[in-house]
Write a structure and sequence with these properties.
This protein has 246 residues and is α/β, with parallel strands linked by helices. It is built from eight helices and six strands. It has helices at residues 23-29, 34-55, 74-97, 113-125, 142-158, 169-174, 221-232, 242-245, and strands at residues 15-19, 59-66, 100-105, 132-140, 186-189, 208-211. Helix 4 (113-125) links the parallel strand 3 and strand 4. It is globular and about 55 Å long. The structure holds 3-methylbut-3-enyl trihydrogen diphosphate (IPE) (2 copies) and magnesium ion. The site of one 3-methylbut-3-enyl trihydrogen diphosphate has 11 residues, from helix 1.
Length: 246
């Protein structure tokens, strides 16, 4: 039976988040420069987005560039930005065809202006699409996001707009960049590394974590389905006992 047919369509996650890792190692294995792996990684992005659209997952978030990644060699950072520009240029049409709304989290102001301008244009162009919201985490740091939310809330308290008793989890979540997006039920990381690397720290509190050894450029639709099938076999207890759930 095909993997796709093994999916329980009534139990799909609403939001899948992916740490796309392993591009550099993929290239190195082939005796090529790291950039070659980043280029190839774009095809895997396409596969993941298509898979999400095909089965009807309304939110997909991809970790594309962390604030820490700015410290990589300049050549690599420049190449990554170029790849991003090319991908947006090339893929916006497909996003429109598939009804995908583009969104970003992170400080896109820090990207080269050619990049951020193009992103804003694609975000605007796809803004009425409703099949899937594709969020790219770019120049993103979850700790920074939490600090910014805290500052914003504190300012509102100081200005007398908000009472301290009104600060609760829902209000806090609404001040994060992911406001309006449900927490991911499933987080996938490729390349065998088992860490979060400053990604969605608040939002992943109760997510199922799925680590796969494949390097990102080798990740395809079937791998995406496999991750969801594995997720569907898990028992999410949210602190309760197994007996309480059944
Ligand atoms: C993920 O692949 C892409 C980015 C972080 C931009 P890496 O570039 O981290 O590849 P590895 O982990 O070094 O193999
Ligand atoms: C996390 O990967 C960031 C992205 C995938 C964009 P890294 O390769 O930067 O993470 P570490 O350094 O292995 O933790
Ligand atoms: Mg890496």
């Amino acid at each position: 039976m095909e993997l796709k047919e093994q999916l329980n369509l009534d139990k799909l996650p609403k939001h899948v988040a992916i740490i796309m890792d392993g591009n550099g190692r993929w290239a190195k294995e082939k005796g090529k420069l790291r950039v070659f792996g980043h280029n190839q990684g774009v095809e895997s992005v396409r596969q993941a987005v298509e898979a999400a659209v095909e089965i009807g997952i309304p939110f997909l978030t991809l970790y594309a560039f962390s604030t820490e990644n700015w410290k990589r060699p300049k050549l690599e950072v420049t190449a990554l930005m170029e790849i991003l520009v090319n991908a947006i240029n090339k893929e916006t049409k497909t996003l429109m065809k598939n009804g995908v709304r583009l969104n970003t989290i992170g400080d896109i102001e820090l990207l080269p202006s050619s990049c951020s301008r193009l992103l804003l244009k694609a975000i605007e162009k796809t803004s009425s699409n409703t099949n899937c919201t594709l969020t790219l985490a770019l120049s993103y740091s979850s700790r920074q996001e939490i600090v910014e939310a805290t500052k914003h809330i504190t300012q509102r308290v100081l200005d007398g707009e908000l009472k301290i008793e009104e600060v609760d989890e829902a209000l806090f979540a609404n001040n994060l960049e992911t406001a309006g997006i449900p927490d991911p039920e499933l987080m996938i990381r490729t390349s065998g590394e088992q860490r979060i690397s400053n990604f969605l720290l608040w939002q992943l509190a109760y997510s199922e974590l799925y680590f796969v050894d494949k390097l990102w450029p080798d990740f395809n639709k079937q791998d995406f389905y496999e991750a969801i099938i594995a997720y569907q076999k898990r028992e999410r207890r949210f602190g309760l006992t197994s007996e309480q759930l059944s």
